[in-house]
Amino acid sequence: MILCNDPSQGFMVVHCPNCGDYTIHLSCNSRICLRCGNKYLKKWVKETSERMHDVDYSHIVFTLPRDIWNLIDENWECISELYGATFRVLKETMSLSSKQKITPGMINAGHTFGNDIKWNVHFHTICTEGGLTKNGFWKSNYFLPYRIMRIKWKQYSMKIVSKNIGSSFEEQITLESVYHQYKDGFDIRRIKGKMKKKELAGYIARYIRHPAISNRRIIDYNTEEVTIDCKGRNETFTVDSFIGRLVKHIPPRGFQVVRHYGIYSRRKHAKKKIPKDKQEIIQTYFGKKFIKCKKCGENAEIIFFYKPDYREKPPPEKLFGEEIGDWIS
Prior knowledge:
Blueprint lengths: L10 E6 L3 E6 L8 H18 L5 E7 L2 H6 L4 H23 L3 E2 L1 E9 L5 E10 L1 E4 L4 E3 L5 H19 L4 H13 L6 E8 L4 H9 L9 E4 L3 E6 L2 E6 H10 L9 E5 L20 E3 L2 E5 L6 E8 L23
Antiparallel strand pairs: 1-2, 1-16, 3-6, 3-9, 4-7, 5-6, 5-13, 7-8, 10-11, 11-12, 14-15, 15-16
Helix pairs in contact: 1-6, 3-4
């Protein structure tokens, strides 16, 4: 990540008949790299927004008490189960409010970080304001009894946490203390409601899929320490501590950070056909190697290639014909 786009990590020089010669540096493609993540974020947000139905939406946040954060520190299996509990709460409460069973839609992103990038588990959700009845009709619902939602969220999340933590005396005492302390349930906040489909792109980019910290919040870096802005107050970390905090929020391989439920479930929701960008692929024509020019889209010839792993020049044949979209920034 630190050496992302650094020439020492690899680059290629290409020649385009329209744009001339230019250099393409190879990216790290790290999950927490701000440069690499932003490129794929924009593409994902556009595709997701276009697939969503033209109805009203709410942005709802499901939170957990601080003591629960500590109990499930880096417990990704428990966090995975909590995702499903958020939709169960929404569906049951919305059906109760509508006086009939309806299936809403939800896009859910679990966050394990707060402003100070410490461990803080909560869930940002984009929810439809209504859902489909069993007969396939749309039933709007702009009122949710949040008192009932908070009680349900407490019950379901406590049951999941209790199942996933250890049986030590301290853990059980903490769980019991939390149960009695939060008699009104765990906090659920509706940040904004009655959002139209056209508003969703910005909201999804900001809340649903973003890194633990953005570039604008990094105030100072002097090779030994990093200073970040935490909502008006500054916090300084050593470089190792800063990177350690970021790495802690990387989920294990295969973990779905963004999940779809209800009418947007992968199993139920028929995706709209959306033209997808094809990854850049090295092609061979008459013995020469080409990729699509990043500037004009024409075939650009690769005239030089360097990657530390490969000392042969020109590039080895085994690389050609493989997708390299993940390399190029």
